[in-house]
Design a protein that fits this description.
The protein is mostly beta strands. It has 2 helices and 15 strands. β1 (31-42) and β2 (45-56) form a beta hairpin.
């Protein structure tokens, strides 16, 4: 699977601290949910779905999400982390229409058997995927630029031909970025291999206007660009 969720795992502690959760107890079953509109371009058309996360300091056993429209989602561990359960609409189910807005209700069971319920509101604001302006390679470095789509932040990641995350930038406010082979953004033993195929992904993030907080994302969109690495 593509690892767009990597960014959310990194911000887990900050998210929970904003909700007033406290660690150090025998089991902290505080939890928070975040639902946002996800979009990408498929077959030349922008399609939309939802992505949702449930976060806690303690391991979840199961998390389900329901809506006022009768839809029910089952969340899975993100990258094997049971403190971050997630769901994202599969590409085959993304639609040209926006997803249902309103409240999404989380029902969680922890590994200990304890339960918790919480909710998050999804609003109508969305992001169209960024449009690529240019991409060039020189001396093993990839330089890319994209048009602003009104996002609050951007993130550049790379996956290999096996859909494994191999590179992640820090968050960006600019609409250009250079990927350098010696950069610290490469994950362990994942330095680029000349002649290998990769996909460069530019994610854009829009936060809810009521909070403007990385703990409350309203929309995410992705631009995917296939590349063959040149040394």
């Amino acid at each position: 699977m593509q690892m767009e969720h990597f960014y959310k795992v990194v911000t887990l502690v900050a998210i929970l601290s904003l909700t007033g959760c406290m660690s150090g107890s025998e089991e902290d079953t505080s939890a928070v949910g975040d639902v946002y509109i996800f979009s990408k371009t498929l077959d030349g058309k922008t399609r939309y779905g939802v992505e949702m996360h449930a976060y806690s300091y303690s391991n979840f056993a199961t998390v389900s999400v329901s809506t006022d429209y009768g839809t029910i989602y089952s969340l899975s561990p993100n990258q094997g982390y049971y403190t971050d359960m997630y769901y994202r609409t599969p590409d085959s189910e993304l639609l040209e229409d926006l997803p249902d807005v309103g409240y999404y209700y989380f029902s969680s069971v922890f590994a200990s058997g304890k339960t918790n319920t919480f909710s998050d509101a999804l609003y109508e604001d969305f992001l169209n995927p960024p449009v690529l302006s240019s991409i060039t390679q020189s001396s093993g470095t990839i330089n890319l630029a994209w048009e602003s789509n009104g996002a609050d932040l951007y993130l550049v990641q790379i996956i290999d031909s096996g859909n494994n995350l191999v590179y992640s930038s820090s968050t960006l406010t600019s609409t250009w970025y250079s990927i350098v082979p010696a950069s610290s953004g490469w994950l362990s033993s994942s330095a680029p291999v000349s002649g290998e195929s990769y996909t460069v992904i530019v994610y854009s993030y829009l936060f809810e206007t009521s909070t403007y907080s990385e703990s409350d994302i309203q929309a995410v969109s992705s631009l995917e660009v296939p590349v063959v690495w040149e040394s």
